Amino acid sequence: MAFDNYQGRKFIDGSITNVNDNLTVEQALQININRKPFSITMRTPGNDEELIRGLLYSEDIYRSSVNLNIELAENKEKSTTEANIEIDESLLKSGYLNSRSFLSAASCGICGKTELDDIDTSCKVDDKNQLSLTKLLKMFDVMKAAQHTFHKSGGSHAAAAFTNNGELLSIREDIGRHNAVDKVIGHLINKNSLKSAKCLTVSGRISYEIISKAFAAKIPILAAVSAPSTLSVDFAKELGITLLGFCRENKATCYSHPNRILSK
User: Fold this and answer.
1) Which CATH number fits domain 131-262: 3.40.718.10, 3.40.140.10, 3.90.1150.10, 2.40.10.10?
2) How confident is the prediction for the chain on average, in pLDDT?
3) Disulfide check for 188: which of 69, 164, 194, 213 has CB 3.0–4.6 Å away?
């Protein structure tokens, strides 16, 4: 279940009322690779296989087209889920060899990376397709309508991938913005449609890490409801990604590579 019901007391203008609120579930996912602990990430349970697949892809750990056998086991005493994955060591890429044994918190930005140079900027996203602002803003309407966990709890983020024609390819929710993105990427990889994704929308702000994931997936347009950080704009310019923020109320602000956006 993506949300659970909690009791609380609401204080309004000197009065007190008891309320029952739906809150977004946050639990730990322990990822083990070849019987060794790799990472712990805090996430909303659900679509865990896609989350792992997307995480391993975007962190340059495993990018083979061969699907992974992911065994999930619940540890009810610790309220955690353990994921065990066997991967041929010859297929493990530099992201694993340079692993930082991270604790990936739900709201992290750079998420433990020690060097910004960890991202290879030598292969920019080179996509000539253009997208109208009208279609872009409609994508946010589609994403918002499908945010079922958010409608119940008000405490989850969403990410969604679309084709250049505005067709929805995938939408996923999670308490963490970057987890939602990883779930979308993993879903697209599993159904062999990652190359069709031309725009990624997210419900919150844009950090450096979201840029790095869009770049890894080679998605040329990234758009958010809220603001981008300075570092995310700098890297979007460097990596060839069209970055838009404040996509709401029939408006949007483009901070990099605006040539892909048509005003109508």
Assistant:
1) 3.40.140.10
2) 86
3) 194
